[in-house]
Every structure is written in C-alpha cells, then in structure tokens.
Amino acid sequence: MEQSEIPHQQLTGPLRRQSVKKNVAAIHISGKLTLLQRKLSNVLLLNAYDALTSKQKHQIDARTLCMMVGYNSNDMETLKQSLRSLAETVAEWDMLDEEGRQEWGVSSLLSYAKLSGGICEYAYSPALAEKLHDPKVFALINLNIQRRFTSGHALALYENCYRFVRTGSTGWWPIDLFRRLMGVDGSAYYESFKHLNAKVIKPAVAEVNKTSNIILTPEFKKMGRQVAEVRFLIKENPQLAMLDIDDGAGVRQGAIYQRLLAVGVSDRLARQWIAEHGEEYVGEKLDYLGGRKGIESPVRYLTAALRDDYKDEAPVKPKVDPAVVARLEAERAAAARKEAERDQAKARERGLRAARLARIRELAGERSPTQRDADKRLFLSRLEDELERSEFRRAGWAAALLEMEMVEFWGELMPGAFDDLEP
C-alpha cells in the first residue's frame, strides 16, 4: 500500500547499554499519522501524564482538546478520525528490563477512546502506560515547542532525535529505517537519496534547528557509492533553552500554580502555561475567569483566554510602582515584536501555500484531458480518509486542505516542479 507523506515512527532492534538506568529512546511509535494527529497524541499524553500509572482511564473536555491541538472546536468528526488512527497505531519496545533481561513488547497507542457528553475518555494499556511514564524510556514533548512546528517531517524528526538528547547522537540508522520514520518508505520518489536529502532531511533539520530547543547535524555513511546510513548529532539550542519546562520545584510553590490546579488544570499543563506566558499574565487571565459566572469548562475557557488575551472592556487600573510599569511595558513590547514576527512567518507561509496551489492548478491545466482524468483517479486512490476524498471531489486541485498531499503527488509526477518556490 502506498504510504503518503504523513510522518510516523518505527524503530526495531534492542537498545543494549551497560546500565539499565541509562536506557533512552527504547520505545517508538509507528503509524501513519498526520501532523495534527501526532500533536493530538502528545496532548493526550500530557493530559494523562500525572496519573498515567495510577488511573486506568483519563478524561479531557473534547472542545478543549480540539482547541489545544488546532482543530475547529466543533469538528468532532475530525477528532473521531484522529482518535481512530491513534487506536490503530502501534507502539513497540525492545529493551533491557530491570533485571537486565531482554524485553520486547507491542501495544496499540490507545487501548480505547470514546466521546460522550462532550468529554473525551481514553486509556493506555498498563504495560505501555508504565513505559510512557518513565522518562528514561520515553521523552515527553513540550507542547510549547510542538505548536511551533508546521511540518510533519520536522516534528517526526524532532521526536525521534529529542529522545537521544542526553547521549548526543541518535546512532546510525539504516536509510530504509529512516524512510519509515519519516513516512516516505512507500514512495518511489524518495528511493533516491538525492530527493530524500533535498525534500525531507534538509528542510526538517532546518525547521528543528530554527524552531526547537535542540540543534541537529546530520552525518552520512556510504557503502560503495550509495549512502547506506544516517545519524544525527544533537546538542541543546542555547537560544531556545527557555522553552524547556523546569522541574517544577519553584513553580509549584507559587500562588498562580495553586490557582490553576484549583480550576482543574493538570500539573504539567500548569507549569507549561507559567513557563510560556509568565505568572503575571496567567494570573490576569485567572482573575478574568473568576469574574465570570456560569462557566461550564474553566480549563477550556482559560485556554482561550490565554491564547486570545481576553480582557475586561473597562478594567480598573490599580496603582503600581513606576518601575513595575516600565518592566511591563518592556515585556509587552517584546511580546508585540514576537507576535509581529509570528504574523510575518504566517504571512510568508500563506504566500508559499498560495503559490504552491497556483502551481498545482497550472500543472494540472497543462495536461491533456485524458491525463487530467488519470491524474485525478490516481490521486484519489492515494487518499484513504473519506473526508479527504470528499474534499477533493468537491474542490479538485483547488482543495487547500490537501495542499501537502497534492504537492507530494505532483512532486513525484514532475520532480523539481516546486523547487523555485522553496522558502
């Protein structure tokens, strides 16, 4: 079956180390996941993490979940499809147990999930929950970093490499294995290392280095004239190190942290919000929340308040020290600059997407009528999701929601067709 450009992870082979306590990257996730589905998996794990080994079932408000991942808050059908994909995704581990014996295991990523009364309930198998909760085995991804990624390949590469950050290198991966990690092993186009390097490795490394708290350097090993293996050297990115969550020892003593827990926010999410926004901003939104009556889901409302900067129309201005005012103004100016940079980046991405879609329509228009019909049938055969198939039947090559899939399709059909549009 042809694999689309949807990132997934799969590693096999034992991780043999001298000390069991030093096991890292021992569990890996395989499956055909979109960028948003991969983000959904990490959000669910974050939500459940505090009680991962003490509770069999976990719950989260469905609309809050959609909001945190990036779905439309009312798009339950997409959420259902994503949960179904996670239940069909395989997690596998091959490692040494506490007594030094070889242990292999496999489990579905979610043992079940259900939506009822606006609540998403889900569970992990006991064996997998134990592995996911152990930081020596599986690295929990910071959502503040995750939300910055716009490429599925980049996020997949980051997840695979971040788990080796303490060892400084991923070790050598066979090229075939790397293709499976990136979800392009079924594509004839990426059988060529030249294409794999130009379209997957280089762009993914560039985004990880620009976006995340680590810096990657790829190295290649040849067998004869062919590249046979790849590894990534890893070091911390000093400019983005502040994106890491601290151990919580100091934050947990603060009043803002305690107020977040009181309204139902989990430990790790509370610490992420404080690390990302600062205690003063979070406290401001908690005050805003406290002034509203009849809020059914405080966590969902607070998520929106932090994201969209909810404010009272006529707030009472307290008397403050001039030094505090100056500091706040400096912080707001810095935040405004960052927001402007984000807006510019989004504008560039929108422009690039528009250019790609225009190029796709141009390429399709240059084909003969017979070729056009064949192109559409071939592209439809690659879409497994019925929602995506329906969207393509409705909008054809103007289906903006399928932009990445269409770019991959035309890139394989006409290599180099988008090279001049590279950012």
List keywords for this structure.
3-stranded antiparallel β-sheet, 16 helices, 423 residues, 48% helix, 4 domains, Arc Repressor Mutant, subunit A, Initiator_Rep_WH1, WH-like_DNA-bd_sf, disordered N terminus, alpha+beta, DNA-directed DNA polymerase activity, coiled coil, single chain
Care to describe what's here?
By secondary structure, the chain is an alpha+beta fold. It folds into four domains: 1-140, Arc Repressor Mutant, subunit A, CATH 1.10.10; 143-244, Winged helix-like DNA-binding domain superfamily/Winged helix DNA-binding domain (Arc Repressor Mutant, subunit A), CATH 1.10.10.10; 258-316, no CATH class; 353-421, no CATH class. It has helices at 35-48, 62-69, 76-87, 126-133, 143-146, 152-162, 175-182, 193-211, 255-262, 267-277, 279-290, 298-308, 322-365, 369-382, 386-395, 403-413, and strands at residues 27-30, 58-61, 90-96, 102-108, 112-116, 119-123, 173-174, 214-223, 226-236. It has a three-stranded antiparallel β-sheet, covered by helices on one side. Strands 2-6-5 form a three-stranded antiparallel β-sheet. Strands 7-9-8 form a three-stranded antiparallel β-sheet. A hairpin with a 2-residue loop joins strand 8 (214-223) and strand 9. Helix 11 (279-290) crosses helix 12 (298-308). It is globular, with a radius of gyration of 23 Å.
